[in-house]
Structure formats: structure tokens, C-alpha cells
């Protein structure tokens, strides 16, 4: 028997028109499913608005949950479409904020933008940028602070912007790397930092920095630049058209 709820089946039918997703396994918070011969797809159970967890349950279990269990829960829970009108979700978020680490928090960063206490959320994210305990680039923190649009975030983002801006200047020496995603030049982190500064600071020079990459020789870099300014430029329009042609209208 297929364990998917009617709502999740509806979502998957929209994602995979004409396909028949088959659940390979499920965890407490997620389904792993395959489509035909292809496998490796996942969907959060929280995408069904009727699937809920109460804060009392998480409060009791949090200390006993292993890191991977916490990561899966936070990733799945934070992706839910509807935020509880009660204090339930905000209290779960507070549990996560009080006892976690950057690996965990960057997996559910956009939940912070739903925190009812905006000042608390901004202060928390700014503190994470100042006291990062991971070697990973804090791109989700940039983007969440950009959504919150608080000028206090600019001072915390700017050191990363300066670091990445210096690094992208290497292109004038070494040229465009063959692998722009994982190569030596941090195009995407730099453009993310610029985009966040456009939103929190508003100074025009950051938008101008991004626009310089609209004509970049590499399509992926052009797409990142358009994405950083939240516009459908020529590259984004092209990719959207290709996606619609392949997968149909959303």
C-alpha cells in the first residue's frame, strides 16, 4: 500500500506529471521515493498541512536526538508551507536556536524569517555571522537576513563581501575556471553577499557589482547574478522556458 497522503500525492503528481511515485522507504519526517527506474527523490511529510508535531514532543526528545536526526527533522519541518498560528512552531524554533550548531542552523535558516520576534531572529543571525563555527560559507544566513531587510545585518555581511570580492578578482589572472561551481573563484558566495547587501543596505554599488556579471561568459554565473537581484533576465528566462518545455507548466 502506498503510504503517501492524498495531499502529498497531489504535490508529486504536479512535480512528475504522468508518473507514478513509489515509496522506497520512509523515516519519521520524510519519504524517499522513486519514479520509474530513477530513485533518490525525497519529500518532507510536513508538506502535507495535516502532518504536525507539537512542541511538547520535541522538547522531550531533543536532547536524545542524534545530530543526523536533528538535521533531518529541522530540514523537513522548516520546509513546511504553513506556519502554526499558535506559538507551537515558534517554540520549536526556539528549542533549535538554543541547542544547535551552524551545520544545523544553516539547514533550517529560513524558518528564522518566520520568527514572530523579528529582532530576536535578526540578532541571532547576525551573531552567527560574527561567530561562525563552521568552515562552510554562510550563504543561507545572507539570504535570510536579506529577506528580513534589517540594516543591522550590513555590518556583519560586509566582511564576507570584501573577502569574496577579493577572491573573484583572481579571474583577471587565471581566467574563467572550467568548473565555476566548485573552482577557485567564489562567484556564487560573492553574488549572494552582494544580493543580501542590496536588500539590507540599499547602497547602489552592490547592485552595480552584480550587474557586471549579467554579461559574463559563463551562463551559470549570469544566472547567479540574475538570481542575486531577483530578476528574470535573459538567462533565467531561457532556463525557465527550457524547464517548462521539459516538465510542463507548474
Please tell me about this protein's structure.
The protein has helices spanning 6-15, 55-61, 67-78, 88-98, 102-105, 118-130, 139-148, 153-168, 171-174, 187-200, 204-211, 219-228, 234-247, and strands at residues 21-26, 30-35, 38-44. The protein is mainly α and 250 residues long. It folds into three domains: 1-51, no CATH class; 52-116, no CATH class; 131-250, no CATH class. It has a three-stranded antiparallel β-sheet with strand order 1-2-3. A hairpin with a 3-residue loop joins strand 1 (21-26) and strand 2 (30-35). The longest helix is centred in the middle third of the chain and has 16 residues, at 153-168. It is globular, with a radius of gyration of 20 Å. 30% of the residues are buried. The mean pLDDT is 92.
Fold topology:
Blueprint: H1 6-15, E1 21-26, E2 30-35, E3 38-44, H2 55-61, H3 67-78, H4 88-98, H5 102-105, H6 118-130, H7 139-148, H8 153-168, H9 171-174, H10 187-200, H11 204-211, H12 219-228, H13 234-247
Helix pairs in contact: 6-7, 7-10, 8-10, 10-11, 10-12
Defining traits:
13 helices; 250 residues; 8% strand; single chain; 3 domains; 3 strands; three-stranded antiparallel sheet; mainly alpha
Report a brief summary of the structure:
The protein has 250 residues and is mainly alpha-helical. The protein has 13 helices and three strands, in the order H-E-E-E-H-H-H-H-H-H-H-H-H-H-H-H.
Biggest sheet, strands in spatial order? 1-2-3
Range of strand content: 5-15%
Kindly report how far apart the N and C termini lie.
Answer: 28 Å
How many domains would you count in the coordinates?
A: 3
Query: Radius of gyration from the CA trace?
Result: 20 Å
What coarse outline follows from CA principal-axis ratios?
globular
How many distinct beta strands?
3
How many helices? The count is 13
- Structural class, by secondary structure, is mainly alpha
Query: How does the major sheet shape up?
Result: 3 strands, antiparallel
The SSE order reads: HEEEHHHHHHHHHHHH
Look at the structure and give the mean pLDDT.
Answer: 92
**Helix content percent band:** 40-55%
Low-confidence stretches: none
